[in-house]
Amino acid sequence: MTNSINRSAGLSRRSVLRGATALGAAALILPAGMRAASAEPKKGGILRIGMGHGSTSDSLDPGSWDNAYSQVFATSRHNYLTEIDADGALQPEIAESWEASADAATWTFKIRQGVTFHSGKALDAEDVIASINYHRGEDSKSAAKPIVDGITDIKSEGSHTVVVTLDAGNADFPFIMSDYHIAMLPAKDGAIDPTTTDGCGPYVVDHFEAGVEAKMTRNPNYWKSDRAHFDGIELLPIVDGAARQNALISGQVDVIDRVDLNTVHLLKRAPNINVLSVTGSQHYVFPMDSRAAPFSDNNVRMAMKHAIDREELVEKILNGYGSVGNDHPISTANRFHAGDAIEQRTYDADKAKWYLKQAGMDSIDLELSVSDAAFGGAVDAGVLMSEKSAAAGINLKVTREPSDGYWSNVWMKKPFVASYWGGRPTEDWMFSTAYKSGVNWNESFWENARFDELLAAARSELDNDKRREMYVEMQGLVRDEGSTVIPMFASYVMAHTNAVATPEKVAPNWTMDGFRIAERWWFA
């Protein structure tokens, strides 16, 4: 395992309700020999970023952003009501402050004045309302719909105050407003244009071709004087891991994400290259479509979960840059992680055989669709899973799918696939996005009435001890009845040239400094 430095900040409900809080989170890991970050940011230069995602099917529609390329592109041109910083603390962005009612069911946001969109339009409360409303309603196809479904009313009080009413209390609501889908876009006649490139963020879009490149220029009117240090940004999708690392070594790009962990030791030896590893809540998963046989039988799902050697995956796929998962998505960085309350699952071929027998089978033939577009090493992970599950009578055929179009043609289309999640800062946010019955990104199509009941109850429960009990039970339900194998949590491993400088702390909530690389980093 890599050496790590973990720092966390406690979360106080009182501070959330008053408009500033902190989220427990793991912080920066600095590999041995990495230089300290520059103290004084400098302006200038074009930052070229090589991303391990990006597809010709990518869209400007904020409700559709489903990969790190789209998400980094989004935060480069947009702002949000709130922002999560490198310490996991919730910071004001377009909302300069907020207050909640005593039951946390009504939230009042004061909107920052003097912010303009790239088009010159001044941002006001109506833009905020339209930007949020785009993700609401029965007809919404947005991936953010489940986290804003609780909004029953949203209105303005003057030009720079927005009041949001929820169907029940939600102490985490300001965190949700930092979601990368809920970007602030200009409104016209009460609605946003989801195809616009206009934003109020650090960079202005000059050119965008899905699956090819995005080029941006610094916003000369950006309201954050201490951010957006580069003259411009070039964002390049380079899905192939070897090509991405070669692009960095040869000087074609300045930064890459998703370093190939099989060759990271070689990259560390390359001159003028720094490897940056950050621990957080990212996890690699294998969802099984629970709607149809054989995965409609939980015995089959449990057999698969016991037939996987998690330690081997962490050792051979992550090369130690991560930790074993326990078939639920809540990481040790989250407040209400179950910890020792739930026993760690391990490889047990005999127990897997037992579950198959409960399903009336001695053996089973399954097909796993994988691609390194899902995560680096996904194909090799599939092979290791196939080798170990054979001892349990599970004959796992591993099918390598094309990287381009994987998220549109394979994910949530085929019954057993590889996928990944960046995790979420709160348990409710993670569960509401991917595990609540019927939500757009419930990739295993799992439904559980008890889980949904607990999800709603925990969201409005203001007693943290009671909330913990509920979230621990929910983690157990996902682990033992859910339809997703979650074998490992992976560090974010990036690399950059010595010419690039970073803050002392790099955010662990998502890759590329919480997707904020464009405005937080600079050239030394």
Automatic annotation (TrEMBL):
Domain Solute-binding protein family, by residue range, is: 90-442
Which CDD domains does this chain map to? Answer: PBP2_NikA_DppA_OppA_like_17 (cd08503)
What keywords sit in the KW lines?
Answer: Signal, Transport
Superkingdom, taxonomy of origin: Bacteria
Where does the sequence pass through the membrane? none
Q: Where in the cell is it found?
A: Periplasm
What SUPFAM superfamilies is this protein classified in? Periplasmic binding protein-like II
**PROSITE patterns, alphabetized:** TAT
Do you know which Pfam families this protein is assigned to?
SBP_bac_5 (PF00496)
| Key word Signal present | yes
Q: Which Gene3D superfamilies match?
A: Dipeptide-binding Protein, Domain 1, Dipeptide-binding Protein, Domain 3, Periplasmic binding protein-like II
Please name the InterPro entries in this protein's record.
Answer: Peptide/Ni-bd (IPR030678), SBP_5 (IPR039424), SBP_5_dom (IPR000914), TAT_signal (IPR006311)
Q: What protein family is recorded? A: Belongs to the bacterial solute-binding protein 5 family.
PANTHER family recorded: PERIPLASMIC BINDING COMPONENT OF ABC TRANSPORTER (PTHR30290), PERIPLASMIC OLIGOPEPTIDE-BINDING PROTEIN-RELATED (PTHR30290:SF10)
User: What protein am I looking at?
Assistant: Peptide ABC transporter substrate-binding protein
* Organism, as annotated: Parasedimentitalea denitrificans
